[in-house]
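Handoff note, outgoing to incoming analyst
You'll be picking up this chain. Sequence as last confirmed:
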Amino acid sequence: MAKTGRTFVFDAEAALKAATLAVIGLTSAWKYKLQESDRKEIVAEAVAKAWSHRDSYDPAKASFQTWVGRIARNTLLDHIRRAKAREGSPAQENDVMTEKSPDTLMMEDEGLEAILRAVERLPEAYRSIIALLSEGKRPQEIAEILGCSPNAATIRCCRARKALRDLLERNMQESGRK
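Most recent structure output, in case you need it:
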């Protein structure tokens, strides 16, 4: 996204990354099972919403990644509500996912932004692997993409995850949250 004065150029790749990380991170945090096809649909819908509402983005209020992450979060919640309605158990007003306090929601947004910042600080090789993992690729598929053995891909995935985890832990310690 290139900012020019009060306008900006919509970066679809950055939006896709932010939405994907948000959906994967939230489903993991909420322990919500999501099919890969549903995840891709939610991410695509979130990016489309971000594109159609791009004029409402205000960089003074939030970073682009946080803004897209919020859209992805709301799109995921809509998906969960629709899934519950299809199952015959309508979403209740007191559902855990719909009854989060503003403080909790703000902490989730800050957490998502921290993850995105940490991913950006990783070396390119690890960023690529994290991106592939966030797309739902398995080590076997990653091995084919990288042109290495499945064992080497598994090791690289472990190292990339560890590097991300270490960065996040270091950031938490530095900010005094731990």
